[in-house]
């Protein structure tokens, strides 16, 4: 029965006679009437295949069998509906010694080299996701057929690595070398058709035509010979010229000191790209070095943080219809993103003008993210302007995203709650107001929860799931499940001033504005923060958020937390009154050009005698850490890993540092507390170390 169900689950995929073959380990295999050896990857107990030591060792045994049987061809593909493979299983490297890692890599290369050398024509059929180690396995085959809709890529750079199973040389020698390098340097995935255009795959077909495509590959009707461009880059002068351009472009986004992997890849290709054997040896050595770096260890940690946050999902949310109230910047983006993810969405607002702007912005965002006119059309069809608010009575979740005014929100709830259907969730996108206050007047506060999105919704991965005293556990869980279904990362927090992310971010931004008041050049402040690894300096961030919003949130937090905050310079409220609010008005702390970018003086052009502070970076970063520690102590967030994940995915806190708490532990809690005390003596009580530092230290000592 289990075997039959397994076969039926993959009935849409062409698996040849191996569909009914007995599973042994991670693979099943069978030879068909045309003497084609069908080898199917189907890792048991997993929804997606990953390439680990066991998978490759078993592949080696199948290669022995193929050599013995001498089939006419070999077809390698996956039985998983999700795709071919999600990449290498990074867990196999965690805790392994350098010797273990080097041994695993060499063993894997030997197996893939043997696969590449078998006499029968080897054909990889790729559907769904084909990433990292999965794509490297496919590149060891003679031909690659991609099923329409497949996505291919090398995401290793996101883990502080580059491909390590032969991908660096096989991709640059089989595909357009510049395009292959771009794939590896960016970590981005490309479509099947794009992969065909650059030579990464040999053909693209619909699933129903896979058998015909296999036959075409067998008889030599598909394939690509190295073109003039590939041959030109086999010469070092051509590679050196391209490598200089690559380094320049990479430096704009990833400094070498923080992210060594892309530079190691460029060096590898420039020096060894003309020789397969030389590049193979250098790839293995380079990969083994990179995996031992702090950057890679911390980025691997971030990978597991992401998985842990996704793992908070317990099942399906039961949401199919989303109703959003408020077509402003946040409400419009929430609605558009939900439509993109396949939900039916109704968007309500009291005015037509913001509705029109929201639909226009949605179209622009969808075109930028989907890059497919049919998918954009379908998503826009799911996004329904709802001037009369009729969707509220049919929705599974209603998300309120109106301005931060307590009375306004309560009025909306009073009108909406009687219309909600049984089982519907009422959610607020508030970033500051206490949920207990918002819930007053609700007849059923158990269905009320906070869903705090971050702007822009299409790029910021975090959603804070905000609970309050009377929320039902099943409501919070369904909200968490819904966040994951939106392809977002949920973090459970308790209702408290600023929740977690804003509470930590406001001191960072407020201290920067105070530094500007002290005469420190804003470009220098931003530069130091960006050198630390923040995606944007705090002065520019204040302009991006809007000085009116930044001032309002800082004032609100200072009042509600009853603790010292950086003083607000007198000129800031005046700027807000004058309408100089930042990017949205064309100017604030910076002036903004037509391209929406701030006009900054080059840091190198700042005079040495301009005001500086040797403690500048610690004044920015340590209050942020202090706030996160306070949130842990107060129970706003209960898990250190979740706190680190929330700050990385909600603020962009330097990923290569592994998160603020991880950074604090790495730097040393005693050192940070001592530095906070010095800053307190010099700048005032806002730098007072939180009592939670002592709790962290105690936990660290117990763990040791």
From TrEMBL:
Coiled coil: none annotated. Residues 321-494 form the 3-hydroxyacyl-CoA dehydrogenase NAD binding domain. Keywords: Fatty acid metabolism, Lipid degradation, Lipid metabolism, Lyase, Multifunctional enzyme, NAD, Oxidoreductase. Pfam families: 3HCDH, 3HCDH_N, ECH_1. One of its GO terms (molecular function) is NAD+ binding. It catalyses: a (3S)-3-hydroxyacyl-CoA + NAD(+) = a 3-oxoacyl-CoA + NADH + H(+). Residues 587-609, 682-704 are annotated as: Disordered. It comes from the Bacteria. Its EC number is 4.2.1.17. Residues 498-591 form the 3-hydroxyacyl-CoA dehydrogenase C-terminal domain. InterPro entries: 3-OHacyl-CoA_DH_CS, 3-OHacyl-CoA_DH_NAD-bd, 3HC_DH_C, 6-PGluconate_DH-like_C_sf, ClpP/crotonase-like_dom_sf, Enoyl-CoA_hydra/iso, FA_oxidation_alpha_subunit, NAD(P)-bd_dom_sf. Pathway: Lipid metabolism; fatty acid beta-oxidation. One of its GO terms (biological process) is fatty acid beta-oxidation. Residues 594-609 have a biased composition (Basic and acidic residues). In the N-terminal section; belongs to the enoyl-CoA hydratase/isomerase family. In the central section; belongs to the 3-hydroxyacyl-CoA dehydrogenase family. This is enoyl-CoA hydratase. It comes from Fulvimarina manganoxydans.
């Amino acid at each position: 029965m289990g075997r039959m169900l397994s076969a039926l689950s993959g009935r849409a995929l062409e698996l040849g006679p191996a569909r009914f073959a007995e599973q042994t380990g991670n693979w099943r295999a069978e030879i068909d009437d045309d003497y084609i050896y069908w080898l199917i990857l189907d890792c048991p107990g997993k929804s997606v295949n990953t390439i680990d030591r066991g998978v490759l060792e078993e592949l080696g045994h199948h290669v022995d069998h193929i050599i013995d049987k001498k089939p006419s061809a070999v077809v390698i593909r996956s039985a998983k509906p999700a795709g071919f493979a999600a990449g290498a299983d990074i867990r196999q490297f965690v805790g392994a010694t350098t010797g273990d890692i080097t041994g695993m890599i060499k063993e894997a290369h030997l197996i893939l080299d043997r696969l590449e050398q078998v006499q029968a024509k080897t054909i990889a059929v790729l559907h769904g996701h084909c990433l990292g180690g999965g794509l490297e396995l496919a590149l060891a085959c003679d031909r690659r057929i991609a099923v329409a809709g497949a996505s291919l890529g090398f995401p290793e750079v996101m883990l502080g690595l580059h491909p390590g199973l032969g991908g660096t040389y096989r991709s640059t020698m089989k595909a357009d070398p510049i395009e292959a390098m771009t794939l590896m340097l960016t970590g981005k995935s490309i479509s099947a058709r794009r992969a065909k255009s650059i030579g990464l795959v040999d053909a693209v077909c619909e699933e129903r035509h896979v058998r015909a495509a296999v036959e075409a590959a067998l008889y030599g009707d598909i394939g690509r010979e190295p073109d003039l461009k590939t041959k030109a880059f086999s010469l070092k002068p051509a590679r050196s010229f391209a490598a200089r351009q690559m380094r320049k472009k990479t430096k704009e986004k990833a400094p070498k000191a923080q992210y060594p992997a892309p530079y190691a890849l460029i060096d590898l290709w420039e020096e060894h790209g003309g020789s397969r054997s030389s590049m193979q040896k250098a790839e293995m050595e380079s990969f083994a070095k990179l995996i031992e770096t702090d950057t890679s260890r911390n980025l691997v940690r971030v990978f597991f943080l992401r998985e842990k946050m996704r793992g908070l999902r317990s099942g399906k949310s039961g949401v199919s219809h989303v109703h959003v109230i408020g077509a402003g910047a946040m409400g419009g983006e929430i609605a558009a993103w939900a439509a993109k993810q396949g939900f039916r969405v109704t968007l309500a607002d009291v005015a037509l003008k913001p509705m029109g702007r929201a639909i226009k912005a949605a179209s622009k965002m969808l075109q930028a993210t989907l890059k497919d006119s049919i998918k954009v059309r379908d998503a826009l069809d799911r996004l329904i302007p709802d001037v009369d608010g009729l969707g509220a009575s049919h929705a599974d979740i209603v998300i309120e995203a109106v301005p931060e005014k307590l009375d306004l929100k309560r009025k909306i709830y009073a009108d909406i709650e009687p219309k909600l259907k049984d089982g519907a969730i009422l959610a607020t996108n508030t970033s500051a107001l206490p949920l207990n206050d918002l819930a007053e007047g609700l007849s059923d506060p158990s269905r009320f929860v906070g869903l705090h999105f971050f702007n822009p919704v299409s790029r910021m991965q975090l959603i804070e799931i905000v609970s309050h005293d009377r929320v039902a556990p099943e409501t919070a869980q369904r909200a968490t499940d819904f966040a994951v279904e939106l392809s977002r990362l949920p973090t459970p927090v308790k209702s408290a001033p600023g929740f977690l992310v804003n509470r930590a971010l406001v001191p960072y931004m407020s201290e920067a504005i105070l530094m500007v008041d002290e005469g420190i050049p804003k470009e220098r402040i931003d530069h130091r923060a960006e050198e630390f690894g923040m995606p944007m300096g705090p002065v520019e961030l204040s302009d991006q958020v809007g000085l009116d919003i930044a001032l309002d949130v800082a004032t609100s937090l200072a009042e509600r937390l009853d603790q010292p905050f950086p003083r607000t310079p007198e000129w800031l409220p005046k700027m807000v009154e004058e309408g100089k609010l930042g990017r949205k008005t064309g100017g604030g702390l910076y002036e903004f050009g037509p391209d929406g970018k701030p006009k900054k003086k080059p840091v190198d052009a700042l005079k040495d005698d301009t005001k500086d502070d040797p403690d500048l970076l610690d004044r920015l970063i340590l209050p942020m850490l202090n706030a996160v520690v306070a949130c842990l102590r107060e129970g706003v967030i209960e898990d250190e890993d979740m706190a680190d994940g929330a700050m990385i995915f909600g603020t962009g806190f330097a990923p290569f540092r592994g998160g603020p708490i991880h950074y604090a532990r790495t730097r040393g809690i005693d050192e940070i507390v001592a530095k906070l005390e010095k800053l307190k003596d010099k700048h005032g009580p806002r730098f007072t170390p939180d009592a939670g530092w002592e709790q962290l230290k105690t936990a660290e000592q117990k763990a040791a």
